[in-house]
Design a protein that fits this description.
single chain, 308 residues, alpha/beta, 8-stranded mixed β-sheet, 8 strands, 41% helix
């Protein structure tokens, strides 16, 4: 059963986000609505001493997210969510800060180009460019973690798929939070849970999807990774809420990865909303972050030890 805090947050999200998204007719209105997430400070709770330093890698603006603690060689390369159209740096920076703090890592948030001003493949190209630049600068792939939520989870997958095709090494592991993997919205949950999802309504999802695609085919594997070739990718951990319309994007992805012989750890959280680990006040969020940290440390430590 979800905690009472989760139940309370679901009601708050329904009023503060979903009901407002349902009245949005364009991306500008969506962007004004998503800014409301920054006002949920009591639920987000960034770590103390959180700081960011602007940088540019491969021509793409980025921010190093630092917690003031001593760090190892690990880097968490994070692609934020927002339907490829929206950005909420305070919220996503707080989550990345928590992950970095829990793993003694540095966080790197990618400020990829957003639709509709820059539709597909701008974001895909930007994320791959940052990943390749890190490797070119000498980043050890076994100490590099890719992480992302929602649209950012999609970009984690497309980055790993392109890296494989171009002969680049895979990261040590990948973290996917409520990843959006099917732009065709063929998963049953997109319709069965369309009235229960506390965060999005179906119209808002379609609006953002159409802005990103700009007429491109939704089943292209670099748009919808669940239709792609998922062999030889890094081990993945997936967390998704049982109330979200995108639940099947995670379930189908995990099944596909396993069919291709890959390693995937999937958890479906009862009664939880889209990308719930953003809200650190939730006990479920803290537990998810603890599991993610263990997963990251396990795979980076294993890589550091080298082959058996």
């Amino acid at each position: 059963m979800p905690s009472w805090r989760a139940l309370a947050l679901n009601k708050l999200l329904y009023r503060a986000m979903r009901s407002r998204f349902a009245r949005c007719n364009d991306v500008h209105a969506l962007r004004a609505t998503i800014s409301g997430l920054d006002k949920l400070g009591n639920y987000i709770l960034p770590p103390s001493g959180l700081d960011s330093v602007a940088d540019q890698l491969g021509g793409v603006p980025c921010d190093w997210v630092l917690t003031g603690r001593s760090v190892s060689e690990k880097v968490i390369l994070y692609f934020h969510g927002g339907g490829f159209c929206l950005r909420s740096p305070g919220v996503h920076g707080a989550l990345l800060g928590r992950l970095a703090e829990a793993t003694n890592a540095r966080g790197l948030m990618v400020d990829y180009r957003l639709a509709p001003e820059f539709p597909y493949p701008a974001a895909v190209n930007d994320c791959l460019s940052v990943y390749q630049t890190l490797l070119d600068q000498g980043m050890v792939p076994g100490q590099l973690i890719l992480a992302g939520d929602s649209a950012g989870g999609n970009l984690v997958l497309t980055t790993m798929m392109q890296a494989r095709e171009q002969g680049l090494p895979q990261p040590a592991a990948a973290i996917l939070l409520s990843p959006a993997t099917d732009m065709a919205l063929n998963g049953e949950s997109a319709f069965l849970l369309r009235e229960q999802d506390p965060f999005f309504d179906l119209g808002a999802l379609l609006l953002m999807r159409n802005c990103y695609l700009n007429g491109h085919m939704p089943c292209d594997p670099l748009v919808s990774p669940c239709y792609g070739d998922l062999h030889d990718l890094a081990p993945m951990m997936i967390h998704v809420g049982a109330l979200e319309m995108l639940q099947d994007d995670s379930v189908r992805l995990a099944a596909q990865v396993r069919r291709h012989g890959g390693v995937v750890d999937l958890t479906i959280w009862p009664g939880l909303a889209h990308v719930f680990p953003l809200f650190y006040q939730l006990p479920e969020a803290r537990e998810a972050i603890s599991r993610i940290a263990d997963f990251i440390v396990h795979h980076t430590d294993h890589a550091a030890l080298g082959p058996d």
